[in-house]
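[Solved] Which block belongs to which protein?

Original post:
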Amino acid sequence: MRQFAVPTAPRELLGAACIDGATELAGHWRIALPLTRLALGVQGPITFIGSWNNAMNPLIVMRSAENYTLSLAPRSLLSSTSTEWDALMAESVISTLPLLLLFVVSSRQMVAGPTADTVK
């Protein structure tokens, strides 16, 4: 994120905003944040998917299956004697729906992002 923001939002733009009377927070909010919208649109879904699929930390912290996160819930249906495959597949689909929704929403932003600022 830093490597994207440094050349995209140069200090001269923020300095010009301060000369025009904007506070430092307003300069970052109105100038730097819109310029880094594309990077935020990519980093946000990647961070969310990484947190959503995190399995090790919840397994360490949570001791009972009732407290598992939604992405760990299908693990509670696995057993060495018999596995309920229909319930396992249904839970897998349900736990994948938020990621699919996030992809649909963010892919539109990622495709429109690079081309939105090129034509004035």
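(Second protein starts here: sequence line, then its structure tokens.)
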Amino acid sequence: MPTTVTTTIQIATQTKLDNIILTDAGKRFNREWIYRHCNYQFEQGKTYAITGPNGSGKSTLLQAIAGSMQLSEGAIVWNNKNGSIEPEQIYKQLAITAPYLELVEEMSAKEFLEFHSQFKPLVADISIDEILSIIGLDKTANKQIRYFSSGMKQRVKLAQAIFSDVPILLLDEPCTNLDATGYALYHQLIENYCSNKLIVVSSNDKQEFDFCEEVLKIVDYK
């Protein structure tokens, strides 16, 4: 069982982003439009869900928000108090977990988080050993990830995203392969460590986004 923690971590980099604005945004592959004419504003400190049927384009929109996929039309702007952040720099402001992102399975969980922290610093007020204890993997911290169950791997994915010291958290089907205990852990992590972050969850599972303040339905932009 994961350790129960009630401390809320304040993210030092949160002042670096104010909002994300989509203006007439659209994406197509070949001649098929995945979404189109999307006008939406994501505000720092608020929580959002992107919902829609399987294959409707939820992940595609999330990748555009992450700056990893260019729009076919329209614009996306990441704003802070000094103006806008360049698209090639937005990766510094966000962390993401998704089924299509792989772990380095030759590493242990501890080694992976240490490796990850070299590229994206983790929150300063908590150690990697403490993180592993919180997600219930302290006893397997030095075991290669290749020998983990799918649920254990998902816990590592959540940890590397949630404990990154960034203002934006993007979660694509974040409870994939988790059991009931894992769902409870997910909600505990969001509540305790994501205060004031801009969170966007892409999912059809109400349990994954029931805390979100706003819901963007991808079918509204077809």
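Accepted answer:
You had them paired correctly. Confirming on the second one: The beta strands are 19-29, 32-43, 47-51, 73-80, 83-85, 94-97, 168-172, 198-202, 214-217.
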